[in-house]
Amino acid sequence: MTRFPTKHFNRTYHATAAALLAVLTGACGGSEPGLVRGELLFDTCSPCHGDDGAGKQSLGAPAIAGGSGWYLSAQLLKFRGGVRGYHHTDDEGLRMRPMSRALFDATGDIESVVEYVVSLPIPDPPSTAEGGDVEAGEAEYLALCANCHGRDGRGDETLQAPSMLHLNDWYIASSLRKYRDAVRGARGDGFEANMRAAMTGVTDERIDNVTAYIMTMQRLPRKAAAPPPPPLPPIDIDPAILPEEVTVAMVEEGQQIFNTGTGICFTCHVREGVGGALAPPLIDDEWLNIDGEYESIVQIIMDGVQEPMEYPGMMQERAGMPLTDEQVRAVAAYVFTLSR
Do residues 330 and 244 both lie within one domain? Predict the structure, then answer.
């Protein structure tokens, strides 16, 4: 059972309840989904996130103006579903859960409030943290973050990786610590698990370093989509080396699953399986957990790797994604060919 100081809890509870009552009373008036309704609903958000959506450090409420619509919608649904705000030490998340549940699908509340937030001017928060080695942080960012959030920090919707260019440094550091400590990321899909895996065992000093580096990134344009990755090379492999019942078409399908958000394998093993800071290379004949034969590759994708031997990245069953048995076998076929 979570316990709060009575005075603090009562003050927060009554303020939240009053704001919710005001909005719900107004909502009964029946405004249509869209900016007008979104502005009305935002009255419940502004006490924490500010009238301009730039956030309030004293409440641990991040800047949400400048966020992408897809990400804001996804987070509200995660709070509602208990994927976020589940941990007893996550005061900010616990505060957000009831707020998210006050938004009604039938009246387009989430769509409306997100549309309003996206319409707000984008903040450019100053650095507030002291310390942090920017040069060391750049190395950390390239090893741990760039594969999903992009070299320029603009994020990637297909990987559910948000832009970080409008965020406060205190919020970035706090979020990274929450992932490290399983306050975030212990529930949800493979995208959540990826963040949890990336932060496993990362020290406060390293978090401060990577946060300091993120704050040096070019702040504009912040919503421009990152350039797409180069196309994958065509599969050129002798069918004679493939195991029984494995086809070139399966390898080609596996290549697409492995190197895209469908399977998210590349977020740890890096594009085309060359390996990175979180997971080993798959292009040589050295295997850490299995013998490298096709069926053992299938099995390890099915079962995952919860306790990595030499790399920090944990792998959930089926990479934490809704992969079918056929898709798993296709990925295994592709991985099988990488070392051959």
Answer: yes
Tokens of 268: 């740890």
311 vs 194: CA distance, rounded Å = 13
Same domain, 294 and 252: yes
Among 158, 181, 214, the domain-final residue is 214
Following CA atoms 164, 41, 179, 128 in sequence, which dihedral angle do they give, to the nearest 10 degrees? Answer: 50
What pLDDT digit, counting tens, does each position of 144-167 carry?
899 889 888 989 888 889 999 999
- From residue 183, alpha-carbon distances to 169, 195, 287 in Å are 19, 12, 32
* Chain segment 287-312, per-residue pLDDT in tens: 998 999 999 999 999 999 878 778 87
The radius of gyration computed from the CA coordinates of the chain, to the nearest angstrom, equals 22
Q: Give the Cβ contact number of residue 252 at 10 Å.
A: 16
The two tokens of residue 192 are 């959540």
Residues 112 and 49 in one domain: yes
Query: Rounded distance, CA 66 to CA 141, Å?
Result: 21
pTM beyond 0.85:
no
Cβ 26 vs Cβ 37: under 8 Å: no
Q: Closest Cα partner for 295 from 249, 235, 243?
A: 243
3-state secondary structure of 102: coil
Give the residue carrying structure tokens 């979020």: 175
Cα distance between residue 98 and residue 23, in whole Å: 14
- CATH code (residue 100): 1.10.760.10
pLDDT at 246 over 60: yes
- Are 13 and 107 in a shared domain? yes
Could you tell me if residue 251 is inside a domain?
yes
